[in-house]
Hints:
403 residues; globular; 16 helices
Amino acid sequence: MRFSSFTSTRASADSARTETTQGNRVQEVDILRGFALLGILLVNSLIMAGPHLGPQSGSSVGSHADNVAEWLVTALVTTKFYLLFSFLFGYSFTLQRAAADRAGKALAPRHLRRLSCLLLLGLVHGVLLFPGDVLMVYAVLSLLLFALRNTSPRTALWTAAGLVACAAACLLAWGLLTVAYSQPMPTGAFTTALERTSVARRATPGSVVSSNLQWLRDTLGWEIIYGSDMLAAILVGMIAGRSGVLASPYRYRKSMIRIVVLALPFGLTGSAFMAVCRNGPLDPRWYDVGSAVGLVTAPTLTAAYACGLLLLLPTRAGRRVADMLAPAGRMALTNYLTQSMVMALVFTGYGLAQYGRYSTAVVLTGCFVLYTTQLVVSRWLMGRVRYGPVEWLLRMATLARKP
């Protein structure tokens, strides 16, 4: 079904809801996933390409345009789109639960097989390609999601708020202690550490794997903090899924407008402060203080992005955007892993070994080229098959049979 069949009228919205329900897909979920893929790519690319630019690096390579571009990515993108993916992960859980009910199958075995497959995919992805992998985190959080599946909406929302508050409090406490008691890293020491990382990332595949393993070990504590933030978004997504919010978002148009108007300025303010702390003129020791503020305000900006896109969909331009994004969202997992594979081939010892050698502007330009290519390929492929390759594998593991 093409999204271009929708119109802005209420009758068309109800018709769309019937069609997506019958097809066992909610088009809006795919559209939002396709949109989130760009944000994930922009953030991950700057990590994979190497932290060689910015005022804190001591490098003279970056131009003013590069520094502005990195600042904008931090302010507008960082920490926003993994929340959107997490929300959609929770929403999709309700669709999987409904599918199990329709098939007369027990949910627990299906869910366990699904998260086991996610865990294995994430382990391979994190060790071989990108240590910032999120699939392993989702697999672990899936256990908690299953345990909380019957939680009342009120309890789930309060739990989500508490998780965000606790994560932000931990970051803020650590950041304030850092500001008060730690000493700034000397430029020479920073450069030495960067050169050591660059050598490891550019060398043999074995050194890349070793570097990834060290990264996974060193960031375990931060995964717990940001995992709490992700679980909060997952719980909100689960509650939204129970209500079928995305199956017919046009019923909530006034609420979505209100969210955009109120959440956008609050989210932008907090995100700008985070960018100043991370990439601005402040002492680098303010990094985690800015991250704590960003953690609190990021959900509002994420909500504003999602609602803004949903409000656009009934328009002519929105229908064209939807037709481009939905196929990429249908195979989002394949696209996510493909992004990491391409970046690993460009920046590490698996291929061209260009770690730390491209400016931010060049890296981001390459991201848009890769993302556009993925949109085109996804649309072509989804016109011929029902599932992307990795989606087919995940579905086979979930159903314990060929789809």
